[in-house]
Amino acid sequence: MVLRKEARNIFLIALALVLGLGLVGCGGGNSPNLELGGINTGDMLDGLLARTFRALGSVNSMQAAEAAVPQLKTINDDFDDLIYHIPKLSDEGRSELSNKAKKAMPEIQDMARRINDMPGLSDILGSEMNSMVEKLGLLL
Predict the structure, then answer these.
(1) By the 8 A CB rule, do 39 and 94 touch?
(2) Residue 133 and residue 108 in contact, taking contact as beta carbons nearer than 8 Å
(3) Strand partners, 58
(4) Residue range 50-74, pLDDT digits in tens
(5) Could you read off the pLDDT of 6-53 as tens digits, one per residue?
(6) How much is the pLDDT for 26?
(7) Distance CA 67, CA 48 (A)
(8) Going by C-beta distance under 8 Å and a sequence separation of 6 or more, which residues neighbour residue 88?
(9) Would you place residue 81 in the very low, low, confident or very high pLDDT band (cuts 50, 70, 90)?
(10) Under 8 Å CB-to-CB from 73, ≥6 apart: which residues?
(11) Alpha helical stretches, state H, 86-120
């Protein structure tokens, strides 16, 4: 029974990664509205989302959760950098960035719920994970 549950969790993690990375895209095809002095905020968001999916998608144990904490701290710092640039974007650019965040938000929320449902993991990741979800929400 435990092995079956573990296999199901691994399958769900793999599925979330595939779906999440599909939502993020490969970057490079972002609109000029997302450019700021050589920085493409769309590429920044794509990279942050891909890293978020990898970090949260790998969490299936206490040890994995502890390993994800520094990754999520770095992701949160990088979200702060992205949020700093948002007011500099045109209305069109902010709208495009918001649409990217809206596409990714449900999957990230599902991953956060999955982690919160696993005993002890939210104690380890809760603060960083919730902060990251809130920062993504600021882009909506």
Answers:
(1) no
(2) yes
(3) none
(4) 999 999 999 999 999 999 999 999 9
(5) 655 555 565 455 555 454 444 456 899 999 999 999 999 999 999 999
(6) 43
(7) 17
(8) 36
(9) very high
(10) 128
(11) 91-117
